[in-house]
């Protein structure tokens, strides 16, 4: 027994701690034994909030699954059964439905935070890459979940998105049939999507554990982007950040539950309250709002080049738009992490954020001019920022003077 | 064949070729109405819902079903158990198969019995084809979710029901079995104008028997059909919000207290 264990007055706790040092694990993870930079801003609340929502999603999801029927003739009415007949069913479903949107709001902010403060840079590259994988699986999970209520948007969204696979050269069509389990999106598709929608959140949970493990190895980055140099720069996680995170949870719940109770379908599409009808294509198929930027990228490619179909280009670009984020630790070559000291990078960063929002707007428009050309320009900027502007600017810009230490900067204020 | 077709449709959709259909939105924007169920303190006016139900039963139910509502659910809008029994008994539902496993009677019609409170609302047509055949090829949709399933919700439904102008614009081309409507996407709707003054007899003499009043009442009833949980949801929401504001304020105070010496 070389590692330190906690000592308690209570003999039962001591008995457990001696055999399974779970109390010291907790204390060293989110307790007084975990030193945290003392200058974290509220942008650092979003990680714990995302974890909070993941728990809500799993809990409400498991409850929904007890009443939901994954069958083409019953899925829609089983959701209505949940809404009307199951005790508190409407609350559980609206928590789950709006929780999906909240999850993306929080995670997108969390990611932009990381880009701005250089949180992905050494030694946190792997932490960052795990995060990008989580985002990727979240996207798939939410897509699968949206299919389950089997409304018109569920069905047609699933048709549009799954048939992207057919863009894969040579085996595309076979692959699509394999994924569908038939010749169209049909009952087998719904069944497997339900199965996977139940599975993937637990994969996310596992990845979140790795994410937090990697975080705790080198601790949090901070708004100054400089390393912790000693105890004078840190405060224990508990009580400082536990109470700050709790306050964050309160503010978040007000925002989240406002939608749940007063505008539960704000983020949804009315068409999804029409049961799926394979014979009737809705005039305007749009994915959930959190996919719109990617949808705009998908549609920005309209010309076949050298025998590569526009569709394949779009699909590859869309997937790359997410996966490329994993390369950010190397694309951003600045020796200074935080963009607070990098005026030039900052301008392009905020343009990038605005551009992502604009892409989202474009993804919701019909494919007509001027939206098509704007979509192309906007997509071009998305990739230009990641592949050209950021690598170049981060390596050439003049940086402002960086404070010597966290404590020096904090006490100056 | 089927794959190729679906893939082609999907590809067309991705590229937006098919979204030309969106051009069909030369419909007017419905006016915003002052519903009792709007806003944070929204509620249902039960008397209005009962009038709306009367309009639904007397008029709309001739063509539209209400699949997710059972007669017994009407107790939630103020009918007594006996009244519900009497209402249900006005309708016939399929009763087969009988002891011999027969679904049809000697004439080849479905066996029926009077509806009971636990039955779902009767559907006027036995299937979609019959519904279409009776309506010039248009399918009258089930109305249980209609206010949630249309952009504009209740405002749209009320506007639609009243949106039949006496003179339609000269440049409108409406096929023979369709009718001109200001608010329906594309303007050509399969449903004729249904609401006229005095077509439904209200018991309460203080309520005007106008098309406008009928439209508003039946739309309120359909809102209840779509969101029977609304009152419970909103009133619980208010309590939860008050609680959260207090709790969050407390968390904030504790946070300030804990952090007072960090500098
Ligand atoms: C990463 C976490 C999760 C995300 C992002 C997510 C997302 C979604 C979304 C967007 C919907 C569609 C909601 C609607 O329009 O009705 C949905 C539905 C559903 N989800 Fe999840 N979900 C997650 C976790 C889970 C888990 C863990 C389960 C089960 C154990 C689950 C079970 C269900 C069921 C049964 C439905 C269909 C019922 C309904 O539509 O309300 N989900 N999910």
Describe the protein in words.
The complex is a heterodimer of chains A (413) and B (263). Chain A has three domains: 1-30, no CATH class; 43-219 and 237-285, Cytochrome Bc1 Complex, Chain C, CATH 1.20.810; 293-402. In chain A, 62% of the residues lie in helices and 1% in strands. Chain A has helices spanning 11-19, 22-30, 46-65, 75-84, 89-116, 125-147, 152-162, 172-180, 187-218, 237-262, 292-299, 310-323, 328-331, 343-363, 371-396, 406-412, and strands at 35-37, 234-236. In chain A, helix 3 (46-65) packs across helix 10 (237-262) and helix 6 (125-147) runs antiparallel to helix 9. Chain A is globular and about 65 Å long. Chain A starts with 10 loop residues before the first helix and ends with a helix. Chain B has a two-stranded antiparallel ribbon. In chain B, strands 3-4 form a two-stranded antiparallel sheet. Chain B has helices at residues 2-14, 46-58, 81-89, 128-134, 153-162, 211-226, 230-259; strands at residues 92-94, 112-114, 179-180, 188-189. The radius of gyration of chain B is 24 Å and the shape is globular. Chain B starts with a helix and ends with a helix. Chains A and B meet through helix 4, helix 5, helix 7, helix 8 and helix 10 of A and helix 1 and helix 7 of B. The structure holds protoporphyrin IX containing FE (HEM). Protoporphyrin IX containing FE binds next to helix 3, helix 5, helix 6 and helix 9 of chain A.
């Amino acid at each position: 027994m070389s590692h330190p264990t906690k000592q308690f007055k209570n003999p039962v706790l001591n008995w457990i701690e001696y055999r399974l040092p779970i109390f010291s694990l907790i204390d060293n993870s989110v307790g007084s034994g975990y030193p945290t930079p003392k200058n974290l801003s509220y942008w650092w609340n979003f990680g714990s909030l995302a974890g909070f929502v993941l728990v809500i999603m799993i809990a409400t999801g498991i409850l929904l699954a007890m009443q939901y029927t994954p069958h083409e003739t019953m899925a829609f009415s089983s959701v209505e059964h949940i809404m009307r007949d199951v005790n508190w069913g409407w609350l559980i479903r609206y928590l789950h439905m709006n929780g999906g949107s909240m999850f993306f709001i929080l995670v997108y902010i969390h990611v932009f935070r990381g880009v701005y403060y250089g949180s992905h840079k050494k030694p946190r590259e792997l932490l960052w890459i795990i995060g990008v994988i989580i985002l990727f699986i979240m996207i798939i999970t939410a897509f699968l979940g949206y299919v389950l209520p089997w409304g018109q948007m569920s069905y047609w969204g699933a048709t549009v998105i799954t048939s992207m696979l057919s863009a894969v050269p040579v085996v595309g069509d076979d692959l699509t049939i394999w994924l569908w389990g038939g010749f169209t999106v049909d009952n087998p598709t719904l069944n497997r999507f339900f199965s996977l929608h139940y599975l993937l959140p637990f994969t996310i949970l596992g990845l979140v554990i790795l994410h937090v493990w990697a975080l705790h190895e080198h601790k949090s980055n901070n708004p100054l982007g400089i390393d912790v140099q000693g105890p004078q720069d840190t405060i224990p996680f508990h009580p400082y950040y536990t109470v700050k995170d709790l306050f964050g949870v309160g503010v978040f719940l007000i925002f989240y539950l406002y939608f749940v109770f007063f505008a539960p379908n704000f983020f949804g599409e009315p068409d999804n309250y029409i049961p799926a009808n394979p014979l009737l294509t809705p005039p305007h198929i749009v994915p959930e709002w959190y996919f719109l930027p990617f949808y705009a990228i998908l549609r920005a490619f309209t010309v076949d080049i050298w025998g590569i179909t526009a569709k394949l280009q779009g699909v590859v670009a869309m997937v790359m738009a997410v996966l490329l984020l994993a390369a950010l630790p190397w694309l951003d070559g600045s020796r200074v992490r935080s963009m607070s000291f990098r005026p030039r990078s900052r301008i392009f960063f905020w343009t990038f954020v605005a551009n992502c929002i604009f892409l989202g707007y474009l993804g919701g428009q019909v494919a007509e001019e001027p939206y098509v050309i704007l979509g192309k320009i906007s997509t071009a900027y998305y990739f230009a920022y990641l592949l050209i502007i950021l690598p170049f600017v981060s390596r050439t810009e003049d940086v402002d003077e960086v404070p010597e230490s966290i404590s020096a900067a904090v006490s100056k204020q | 064949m089927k794959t190729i077709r679906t893939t082609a449709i999907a590809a067309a959709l991705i590229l937006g070729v098919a979204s030309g259909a969106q051009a069909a939105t030369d419909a007017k924007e419905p006016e915003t109405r002052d519903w009792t169920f709007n806003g944070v303190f929204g509620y249902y006016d039960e008397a209005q819902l009962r009038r709306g139900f009367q309009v639904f039963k007397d008029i709309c139910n001739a063509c539209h079903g209400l699949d997710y509502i059972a007669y017994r659910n009407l107790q939630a809008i103020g009918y007594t158990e006996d009244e519900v029994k009497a209402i249900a008994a006005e309708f016939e539902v399929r009763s087969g198969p009988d002891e011999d496993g027969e679904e049809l009677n000697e004439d080849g019609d479905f066996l029926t019995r009077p509806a009971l409170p636990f039955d779902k609302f009767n559907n006027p047509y036995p299937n979609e084809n019959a519904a279409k055949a009776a309506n010039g090829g248009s399918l009258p949709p089930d109305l249980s979710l209609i206010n949630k399933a249309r952009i504009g919700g209740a405002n749209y439904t009320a506007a639609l029901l009243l949106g039949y102008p006496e003179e339609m614009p000269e440049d409108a081309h409406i096929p023979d079995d369709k009718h001109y409507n200001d608010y329906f996407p594309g303007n050509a709707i399969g449903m004729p104008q249904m609401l006229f003054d005095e077509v439904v007899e209200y018991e309460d003499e203080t309520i005007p028997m106008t098309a406008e009043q009928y439209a508003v009442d039946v739309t309120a009833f359909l809102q209840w059909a779509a969101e029977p949980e609304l009152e419970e949801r909103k009133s619980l929401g208010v309590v939860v919000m008050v609680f959260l504001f207090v709790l969050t304020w407390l968390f904030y105070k504790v946070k300030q207290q804990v952090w007072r010496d960090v500098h």
